[in-house]
């Protein structure tokens, strides 16, 4: 930083050592020392104008204010990330809903899943299918309102491998189709972070951002 008002016979340079710290308080202290040196060395016949001094004071206050704000925001972001990780530990062992079509089947032989309708539908159908697309069973759910809906399916009668079963949802209202988003139920087995985002590792091996979780069961 150079302070050199018009008519002044002294120029004060901030040395390399003064730039070593970006601490707002240190910057303001250096600025005040430079300003005092400038005032002491100004031309008595052409003193520093009050408006010019006010402008310089406002500039340093703006710079230090922005740096203080940046430091505060950085500290808040670090605290928030720590709180997320602590809260995330409580998610381990719980079940969440994320976008996907894998059917969850319990040890008691009950299959479950969910879906979200973009609008009200007069006819909703859920098909349980194998990975190859073979229909195992069909659930007729009738009319459903807009929003999220759960369903259950008795998997005890199915003799095949239930771990790979999928489901698909078809919804319509009169003569038009209604968009349906399948939601799969998964258990959280671990938590972590990636690119500054809080993540969940699910029982099926997927890793999803916590922001993409549609519901906690």
Please render the helix and strand layout as text:
Elements: E1 2-3, E2 12-13, H1 24-40, H2 50-89, E3 95-99, E4 104-105, E5 110-117, E6 121-129, E7 135-144, E8 147-154, E9 166-173, E10 176-177, E11 180-194, E12 197-202, E13 207-209, E14 215-216
Antiparallel strand pairs: 1-2, 3-11, 3-14, 4-5, 5-8, 5-11, 6-7, 6-9, 9-10, 11-12, 12-13
Family: Belongs to the FlgD family.
InterPro entries: FlgD, FlgD/Vpr_Ig-like, FLgD_Tudor
GO biological process, one term: bacterial-type flagellum organization
What this model shows, in words?
The structure is a single chain. With 217 residues, the protein is of the alpha+beta class. The chain folds into two domains: 2-89, no CATH class; 98-185, Immunoglobulin-like. It is 26% helix and 38% strand. It is built from two helices and 14 strands; from the N terminus they run ββααββββββββββββ. It has helices at residues 24-40, 50-89; strands spanning 2-3, 12-13, 95-99, 104-105, 110-117, 121-129, 135-144, 147-154, 166-173, 176-177, 180-194, 197-202, 207-209, 215-216. Strand 6 and strand 7 (135-144) form a beta hairpin. Helix 1 (24-40) runs antiparallel to helix 2. The protein is elongated and about 100 Å long. It starts with a strand and ends with a strand. 16% of the residues are buried. Residues 1-20 have low confidence and may be disordered.
């Amino acid at each position: 930083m150079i302070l050199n008002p018009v008519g002044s016979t002294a120029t004060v340079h901030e040395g390399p050592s003064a730039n070593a710290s970006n601490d707002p308080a240190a910057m303001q202290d250096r600025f005040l020392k430079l300003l005092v040196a400038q005032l002491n060395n100004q031309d008595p016949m052409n003193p520093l104008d009050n408006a010019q001094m006010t402008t310089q004071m406002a500039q340093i206050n703006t710079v230090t204010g922005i740096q203080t704000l940046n430091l505060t925001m950085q500290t808040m972001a670090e605290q928030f990330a720590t709180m997320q990780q602590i809260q995330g530990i409580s998610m381990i062992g719980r079940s969440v809903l994320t976008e996907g079509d894998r059917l969850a089947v319990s040890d008691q032989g009950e299959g479950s899943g969910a879906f979200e309708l973009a609008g009200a539908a007069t006819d909703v159908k859920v098909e349980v299918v194998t990975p190859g697309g073979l229909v195992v069973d069909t659930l007729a759910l009738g009319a459903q309102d807009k929003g999220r809906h759960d369903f259950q399916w008795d998997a005890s009668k199915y003799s095949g491998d239930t771990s790979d079963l999928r489901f698909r949802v078809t919804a319509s209202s009169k003569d038009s189709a209604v968009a349906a988003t399948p939601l799969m139920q998964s258990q959280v087995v671990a938590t972590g972070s990636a690119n500054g985002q809080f993540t969940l590792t699910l029982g099926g091996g997927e890793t999803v951002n916590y922001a993409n979780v549609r519901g906690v069961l």
